[in-house]
Amino acid sequence: MAGRLVIRGLACGRGGRLVVPPLDLALSAGEAVLVTGENGAGKSTLLRTLAGLLPPLAGGVRVEGLPAADGEPARSLADIAHYIGHRNALKGARRVGAELAFWARFLGGAGGLSPEAALGALGLPEGVARLRCSDLSAGQARRAALARLLVAPRPLWLLDEPTNALDAATQARFAALCRHHLSSGGMILAATHQPVDLGPAARTLVLEPQPAGLALAESGEDEGWEAIG
Ligand SMILES: Nc1ncnc2c1ncn2[C@@H]1O[C@H](COP(=O)(O)OP(=O)(O)OP(=O)(O)O)[C@@H](O)[C@H]1O
């Protein structure tokens, strides 16, 4: 994988209020950014905006030199990103293996691991694939959600508190998977309160909470930037 993600003047809001003031950030193949900041600083808001779940207040993102799952040049983050939010997005009534197979089909692309292999990479024994998602422990469910990253290869991982509920050994295992993703040319933007060792290619972005009622100054320089989503 090669390519670049360029975020320019991206401002994010919640409930009509500015939460993340205009932000410039470039991420090249093999690089990671750890987004930190106190509770309420806007980490989830930034990731949800990048994932296309919230409309940006201003600015945008350009994807350069990356193919979408169908091999065509990617035009938006939706073509190249995985998003793992606070919630695991696992259908309770479905078996874990079937759920991961669904995500592999839904996200498309070739070259992903089988559900069993992906679960194994997160340290879950083979039998877990046959359990219903609703029967998993909190840490098992988080691992199953993270296994999505491996069944459908995508260059950009947007991760919101990915190691929540994981035991120490699994946190280290997941950090190693992240470093492998980066060394294969992937990119990671991860919000976290816990230290995650993503290696030397990781930078830190600290978000500061914004005062309530802050307005966004107009820049009028958004031409040529792709809409997010
Ligand atoms: N649905 C919502 N409607 C209105 N405001 C919201 C909503 N969700 C979050 N906010 C506000 O947006 C701001 C940023 O919240 P966000 O969840 O992005 O912070 P965070 O940095 O991820 O916090 P944490 O570390 O607690 O997960 C907070 O002030 C919060 O109150």
Topology:
Layout: E1 4-14, E2 17-28, E3 32-36, H1 43-50, E4 58-64, E5 81-84, H2 96-107, H3 115-121, H4 138-151, E6 156-160, H5 168-183, E7 187-191, E8 202-206
Parallel strand pairs: 3-7, 3-8, 5-6, 6-7
Antiparallel strand pairs: 1-2, 1-4
Quick overview:
By secondary structure, the chain is α/β, with parallel strands linked by helices. The protein is built from 5 helices and 8 strands; from the N terminus they run βββαββαααβαββ. The strands form 2 sheets. Strands 5-6-7-3-8 form a 5-stranded parallel sheet, with helices on both faces. Strands 2-1-4 form a 3-stranded antiparallel sheet, with helices on one face.
Are any ligands bound, and if so which? Answer: adenosine-5'-triphosphate
SSE order, one letter for each helix or strand: EEEHEEHHHEHEE
Low-confidence segments, given as residue ranges, are none
Task: List the domain count as a whole number.
Answer: 2
Query: Which strands sit side by side, in order, in the main sheet?
Result: 5-6-7-3-8
Number of H- or I-type helical stretches = 5
Main CATH class of the largest domain:
Alpha Beta
Average pLDDT works out at 91
Keywords: ATP-binding, Cytochrome c-type biogenesis, Membrane, Nucleotide-binding, Translocase, Transport
Domain ABC transporter: 5-228
Pfam families: ABC_tran
Organism: Aureimonas ureilytica
